[in-house]
Amino acid sequence: MRMAKRMASGVHSFPAYPKGVPHKGYYNTVNFVQKTTSWKYNKTVSVVLMLCSLFSLFVTILILIQLLQHFKLNPLAAFFFALVLNIVTVIYFPFFRNNYKGHGSPNVWHNSTFIVMKPFALLAFYFLVFGKNQIKESLHYIMGTAALILSIYTKPTFAVAFIPAYGSYIAYNFLVKREALNWKACIAMFLGLCFMAYQFYFGYAESPDVVSEKSMGFSFLTSWKFQSSNIPLSLLTGLSFPLSVLLLLNKKALKKPYLILGWLMIIISVAFVSSISEVLNGKISLANNFMGLYNISLALIFTFSLVELIKSTLNDKNSKFSIKICWLVFGVHFLSGLYLIWSVYFYNKAW
């Protein structure tokens, strides 16, 4: 709770909604809890964010147990790995100008709406990607669609990266691999797009003055350069672990739908962050809010890369040296995350 209070409490003023923010899920939740409990808003924000963080941890545990059920992963081990996955960040380099907002990170602590959105994004990805061929296939798609809409309601970041990646994957399977068209997945994406359009239209309709001030424009790497002095190094510090798994372990793993979609989301999110900037009153804004697409894509690719690493470790079919290298890189990401929490907890500042 102290972490939540330090990093996110008071980020936005309550009970008023910020102008020009169509995704009001987080704000509606905080206001509802505050009115129900009569707590002060700072305490309400802290409790809501703490519960959402625990929800993300719980969802991660369920995903790990489900994907590693063949290996009968111990629930305590699943809890440990899930906890680590909710701590890891980009690799910290003391000699490099560090700004974790500019590097991107699988876990962020400065953005309240991202924290609330993350568990729904994990659920949507899991149910929609693994819905096909499941015993309760229809139920999976219904739950995945509901989670997708809830993630959009709290923050559309995940959907903006996931829907193009998911649509491309389904189109490839249909047009190239000649598989039957996955209508249930198409309906899920259509409903997500409709809700996003509805939310944006009516959200911005409430604040026409904000709409007249804000816009988006193409500007190659401009916003990213404001927060990172070396973008290739920023990418490397964020993607070191997934890349090590991709390059050193079984190449057949890339045929897994969750890794294909994870890397597609990385590519799409990097394209957004690199080429689109927010424009405020005719000037490019320093706020690089499209980084959220990259952050949630990192969270997903870290989770499923760890699944493949655990499988390779238990199968012991790969080079033991390669496996050790991957665990070492993952450990460095974890230590960097612990250092970030230490900095925030004791000094109330990130890198």
Outline:
The protein is mainly alpha-helical and 351 residues long. It is 69% helix and 3% strand.
Describe the structure.
The protein is mainly α and about 350 residues long. It has a domain at about 1-5 and about 15-115 and about 210-345. Helices cover about 70% and strands about 5% of the residues. A three-stranded antiparallel beta sheet has the order 1-2-3. The radius of gyration is 20 Å and the shape is globular.
SSE series:
HHHHHHHHHHEHHHEEHH
Rounded to an integer in angstroms, the radius of gyration calculated over CA atoms is: 20 Å
Beta fraction: under 5%
Percentage of helical residues? 55-70%
Low-confidence stretches: 7-12
Structural class: mainly alpha
Helix count, per DSSP? 15
Which shape, going by the Cα principal axes? globular
Q: Strand order, main sheet: write it out.
A: 1-2-3
What is the number of E strands? 3
Assembly classification: single chain
| N- to C-terminal distance | 21 Å
Descriptive tags:
single chain; 351 residues; mainly alpha; three-stranded antiparallel β-sheet; 15 helices; 69% helix
Strand and helix layout:
Blueprint: H1 2-8, H2 25-37, H3 41-67, H4 75-85, H5 100-103, H6 112-129, H7 137-154, H8 157-175, H9 183-205, H10 208-213, E1 214-218, H11 222-227, H12 231-248, H13 257-275, E2 276-280, E3 283-284, H14 291-315, H15 320-347
Antiparallel strand pairs: 1-2, 2-3
Helix pairs in contact: 1-3, 2-3, 3-4, 3-6, 6-7, 6-8, 7-9, 8-9, 8-13, 8-14, 12-14, 12-15, 13-14
